[in-house]
Design goal:
Blueprint lengths: L1 E8 L4 E2 L4 E6 L6 E7 L20 E8 H7 L12 E8 L5 E8 L4 E3 L4
Parallel strand pairs: 1-7
Antiparallel strand pairs: 1-2, 3-4, 3-5, 5-6, 7-8
Amino acid sequence: MGLSTHVLDTMHGTPAAGMAVALWATDGGEPRLIKRLTLNADGRNPDGLLLSASELQRGTYRLVFDVAGYFKTRGVALPEPNFLNQVNLDFGVADPQSHYHVPLLVSPWSYSTYRGS
């Protein structure tokens, strides 16, 4: 089914449109960049899945969300250094035939994630 993400800005109560995200493969030595993207108006990858069912492999991955950059573009006055700069979510894929949805709920001061459907 593939890999997807969705980011919601809990400070403003909106999708995190324009947030930069990077997807890395982290198993087997040095992390390997798979792709970079900017979230669309719905806070999702404009191309749909991050990885299709045929691309998703068993292993470990990291999603890196540019939280400080996003909130700065929204005009939020952040202290230096920022409390949250980038949020790194490390997760494992045990069954690549399943759908892995990795949402992020985020403000400048907190975040939450879970395996969604």
